[in-house]
Amino acid sequence: MFPTEQLINAFATYFVTIDPPGQAAIILGLTAGMSSLQRRQLALRGTLLGIGILIAFVFIGTGLLSVLGISVAAFRVAGGLLLFYIASEMVFEKRAERRGETAEKAVSDHHARGLAVFPLAVPLIAGPGAISAAILLSSQFTTPLEQGLHVGVIVLVGVILYMFLRLADSIQKYVSDSVSNVLTRLLGILLAALSVQFIADGVRTLASSG
């Protein structure tokens, strides 16, 4: 059976945790004074590296947990709590402020080329929330076909992210702060619901195994 529902949930989770619209706003601050070519290169390098890290965790994340002696159910609960914390930050407008502070610190410490690695790829794209999501969702896609579809979802979100980063200037002109704030809160509520589902599934598995 084609895992349509799981794929939709995966797309929503990655889109919300990576937050392409929010990244577009941050890259404007990161690239102040850069040429269009430098901005495009930064966007491409950062996106490729960040998405590559997430794909790597799809395949090695579960094995890493096994080596550390952590069950998938326990990680599902912990990851769900982390995602819920991120969702609460989005709803109460804390996440954008924290990301902005991270970006400002990076600008003072790194030259333009290094910005693609830090903070764009890590932690703004492949941050704790997105990495947790990659490991959690990998346990839901078990067959080679499902794993390929899972990776395809991550790549799709990466393409959308790159488009947002490339069009950051134009997007800022047409999307007001009030509209951006409303969208962020709505996405935060969606992520909160998904994180609660992760926690509930993990608790149910732990209870049944105990």
Run of helices and strands: HHHHHHHHHH
Query: How many angstroms separate the termini?
Result: 30 Å
Largest sheet: none
Query: How many alpha or pi helices?
Result: 10
Assembly state here?
Answer: single chain
From the alpha carbons, calculate the radius of gyration and give it in angstroms.
Answer: 17 Å
State the shape: globular
> Beta-sheet strand percentage?
under 5%
Mean pLDDT: 83
- The structural domain count equals 1
Given helix and strand content, the structural type is mainly alpha
Question: How many beta-strand runs?
Answer: 0
Low-pLDDT segments, ≥5 res: none
How helix-rich are the residues, as a percent range?
A: over 70%
Comma- or semicolon-separated keywords:
10 helices; mainly alpha; 210 residues; globular; single chain
What does this structure look like?
By secondary structure, the chain is mainly alpha-helical. The protein has one domain (4-209). It has helices at 4-18, 20-30, 36-68, 72-91, 95-109, 117-125, 128-138, 144-166, 168-174, 177-209.
Brief summary of the model shown:
The chain is mostly helical. It has one domain. It is built from ten helices and no strands.
List the helices and strands and how they pair.
Blueprint: H1 4-18, H2 20-30, H3 36-68, H4 72-91, H5 95-109, H6 117-125, H7 128-138, H8 144-166, H9 168-174, H10 177-209
Helix pairs in contact: 1-7, 1-8, 1-10, 2-5, 2-8, 2-9, 3-6, 3-7, 3-8, 4-7, 4-10, 5-6
